[in-house]
């Protein structure tokens, strides 16, 4: 098990309880009584519960069975036909919300573009017609490699509208990471942009896309959005400009009725083995799950302007920047750029300018803001905010309190939402008007979620006992499989502890039923809320000609939560150039995987059978004294030597 880091230790002693104000509770969508009643119903009469929720959405054909559970495979709303884009757009236009703002987008350079629901429907329809003209059919995979611009949302919804399966690859991923994902998904079409803006610079995405295409023989077409007017290389028989092919289409398009279990998207995420997994989500269940959780957790009202700061390259961007809020007919804000462009006040200026009411962001961002002091947010009028959310990694109580006090003016409830790429939607949280918050603790299970804390052998643990977080029954928005590798799905999620979903997190539950997440228990790191497999980084390192062996561990970091520490052995005593090696990892995976510290070693701590004891490496990386039984090591002397080696 991963050693608990310092801030997790702090949480063990955290006792503050902060109740929502009477004012917030009085206007909240969900009260304590309502949560208790519906939560009970969701477990005792799940068919009735989920039918009631699903019936609020549009179905072209009704389902005949709510759940078909053939462990570990679930089908939800069996036989039903629906369409995500129809529910996110047409449904609202049909009920008179055509003129309501759907998307308010702000570019890093300050440009603002606004789309009403009617306008967004028109754009998505055009894009859907264009995809069809390009030969994309229902079931085909389409890879998206885009900055956070309106076309990214339009492209996702256009895929959903025709039943094409999108696979969004974060724009910060490298050429080879992009190529691997295109190849694994067997995408024939890549949608990208000439460039995206990041910290004032145009980052040339097309160049990366061209290089990835050279490594992806199955790729046939590239659809390119003009964002930055940067010069690009052009391959006439392959590349098409978005404006040329989308702009000329009709703005009418009939959404395809799709089977509830039709795949909606694949999203790659890191696991404990080397290769990222294509997490596969389907249409009906994911739609119902994101619809319900967005409305309940964020207390959505008609006049809210809701801002989730996640990029669409991550699951948070899928479920809570795009699908969940649009399914609810909300007005969403999207911001293209970095939080510190031109300075650390950018988020607060955006909130003041657009009168944002709900903000959902990550602990790593909150800690960065906190580090720059209270004066910067104090310069902006944040009085429009009424609710704050946190997601992606454990939030330390100090950052939680700062967020509530400085950003939320001690007035806004803070929800700390635990979930994963695989769960599709929020699983553990407090509901803002219903439950008091405990800083550092995610809270209670969402409707339909039946969690437990277990030992490795599957025994359930009681209150305040730390163990493994599992979910005891399927839920609508859960992943259906790992794309192209069902065996890995069975093993990773339902095989670790037979019969229950294994989340990969350590957690404990207190006597009020609140869950506190203690971090990953597998070889997965969480760096600034981004998930990275240690094996993935190790394979990148050993692909470098000067490296013969590598071991990667996480080290607690005050801003990033965790950072990457790499122990490397050199090939035949070659010199390691740390900058070169960091550049190499950036090229292999992306800048997010760059090691913060590199320790060039003569030997790694291995057992006699050759297994690297990462536990000791974690202690060395954190500068802690070695604790634990070192007698199984082939050569315990290695540890002192490593501890004495300065990092580069
Ligand atoms: C892992 C999932 C959920 C969307 C963003 C990340 C960690 C996530 C919390 C939280 C403590 C959290 C877990 C989880 N995590 N939210 N509120 N408190 N830890 O999605 O990339 O799939 O990562 O992020 O370790 O397993 P992801």
Main traits of this protein?
globular; 21 helices; 8-stranded mixed beta sheet; binds 5'-O-[(S)-butoxy(hydroxy)phosphoryl]adenosine; 33% helix; 648 residues; alpha/beta; disordered N terminus; 7-stranded mixed beta sheet; 32 strands
> Which strand order does the major sheet show?
12-11-8-6-7-14-15-25
Q: Mind summarizing the main beta sheet?
A: 8 strands, mixed
Residue ranges: pLDDT <50 for 5 or more in a row? 1-7
Helix/strand/pairing category = alpha/beta
| Strand residues, percent | 15-25%
Nearest-integer average pLDDT: 96
**How many β strands by DSSP?**
32
Named once each, the bound ligands are: 5'-O-[(S)-butoxy(hydroxy)phosphoryl]adenosine
Count the helices. How many?
21
Distance between the termini: 27 Å
The best one-word shape is globular
Helix coverage percent of residues?
25-40%
Rg over CA atoms: 24 Å
Keywords: Acetylation, ATP-binding, Ligase, Magnesium, Metal-binding, Nucleotide-binding
Cofactor: Mg(2+)
EC number: 6.2.1.1
Modified residues (N6-acetyllysine): 611
Description:
ATP binds at residues 392-394, 416-421, 505, 520, 531. 33% of the residues lie in helices and 24% in strands. With 648 residues, it is α/β, with parallel strands linked by helices. The longest helix has 17 residues, at 117-133. Mean pLDDT is 96; it is low at 1-7. The strands form 9 sheets. An 8-stranded mixed sheet has the order 12-11-8-6-7-14-15-25, sandwiched between helices. The chain is built from 21 helices and 32 strands. The two termini are 27 Å apart. It binds 5'-O-[(S)-butoxy(hydroxy)phosphoryl]adenosine. 5'-O-[(S)-butoxy(hydroxy)phosphoryl]adenosine binds next to helix 12, strand 20, strand 26 and strand 27.
